[in-house]
Amino acid sequence: MGSDSHIALDGSSDLVVGFFECSLNSILYQRGIYPPEDFQQKKRYGISVLMSINEELNAYLDDIIQQLKAWLQTNKISKLVLVIKSKDTNETLERWQFDVNVNKSTHGVDDTSSQNDSKNTTQEIRSIMRQIVASVSFLPTLDDDCTFNVLVYASEDVEVPITWTDSDANLIPGGGEHIRLRSFSTAVHKVDAVVAYRVEDSI
């Protein structure tokens, strides 16, 4: 891989990691996992995004984000999943999945096309962020007290931090309903998003 490809990979990894950080914060806010006073509005991608000011949460998320960046730069990650679970039953209620695919043809990307790609990527990310904000209108209300887990699917040969543990897929019983969100692409990565949620048994 030449130096231009490394630059493209670094820039793409930064974009994907930044998107993940904003998405995790926005979902935790929109779904009421943390109280509204734990968040503050910040400008990202030309829109206002609610980001956590909770020190404990930020320390947890920062640990994930830094590790994600290292794995993205070596193309070792295939998906990131945010799982929302009931504290009482430990049942998975929602599962936000972001699939990461690597575009192998990253050679010959000039500055002009990179700038155009970056503008398009920003617009695509903005669309997904707006969908996350709008999610409260179509997702079932979370009546349970909820907690969350972040799952990272990485290559088997990666070095995993000792504080991380193996986990099952935390799938929704019966599969649940799925809503596909928009995707976005950089010169190197394509990220597809889907949210699955539990459907109450019909009476």
Structural topology:
Layout: H1 3-30, E1 39-44, E2 47-52, H2 55-72, E3 77-86, E4 92-102, H3 111-134, E5 146-154, E6 177-185, E7 189-197
Antiparallel strand pairs: 1-2, 3-4, 3-5, 4-7, 6-7
Helix pairs in contact: 1-2, 1-3
Describe the structure.
With 203 residues, the chain is an alpha+beta fold. It has a single domain, classed as HORMA domain (Cell Cycle, Spindle Assembly Checkpoint Protein, Chain A, 2-Layer Sandwich). It contains 3 helices and 7 strands; from the N terminus they run αββαββαβββ. The strands form 2 sheets. It has a 5-stranded antiparallel β-sheet with strand order 5-3-4-7-6, covered by helices on one side. Strands 1-2 form a two-stranded antiparallel ribbon. The longest helix has 28 residues, at 3-30.
Brief summary:
By secondary structure, the protein is α+β, with helices and mostly antiparallel strands.
Helix content: 25-40%
Regions with little confidence, pLDDT below 50 for 5+ residues: 106-113
Give the N-terminus to C-terminus distance in angstroms. 58 Å
Number of strands: 7
What structural class should be given to the helix and strand makeup? alpha+beta
The assigned CATH architecture is 2-Layer Sandwich
Helix and strand element order: HEEHEEHEEE
Looking across the biggest beta sheet, what order are the strands in?
5-3-4-7-6
Shape: globular
CATH top level assignment: Alpha Beta
How would you sum up the major sheet? 5 strands, antiparallel
